[in-house]
Design a protein that fits this description.
flat, 128 residues, 2 domains, mainly alpha
Length: 128
């Protein structure tokens, strides 16, 4: 269980507890010392981050990693907010409580590799 002196947002508390207890039971936690066992434990969102085509200084190039995925996700949220504003609805604001309240809107990637695009095999996702 999580220590009570750690500040974990309420919308994430149950998910962190389930993740840590399941990972510990399965023996798949990273080595001790490589992560904080009393931290938030999981990212709020992630995205495939390989081979994003960008135009920089008049030249096309591929980028990868957080530098690609974070702006892509931010762009999607911006487009959603724009559509909401045009429909006379408020912008979404802080997304995290919504994300955790609607897990069925997302795909939970539980098996695979961080080396997609490097010849290490297919991405597998949990079905259902």
């Amino acid at each position: 269980m999580l220590q009570t002196n750690v500040t974990i947002p309420e919308w994430q508390r149950r998910d962190v507890e389930v993740y840590l207890s399941t990972a510990a039971r399965l023996g798949v936690l990273p080595p001790v010392g490589s992560f904080s066992p009393v931290g938030r434990a999981t990212p709020d969102v992630s995205a495939l981050a390989q081979g994003y085509q960008t135009l920089m200084n008049g030249k096309w190039s591929a980028i990868a990693g957080t530098s690609a995925a974070a702006p892509a996700f931010a762009g999607m949220v911006s487009l959603l907010n724009e559509a909401r504003l045009q429909a006379k609805m408020p912008a979404m604001g802080l997304l995290n409580p919504f994300l955790y309240a609607n897990p069925d809107a997302f795909t939970d990637v539980t098996v695979g590799t961080n080396a997609i695009g490097r010849g290490t095999g297919p991405l597998k996702v949990r079905q259902g």
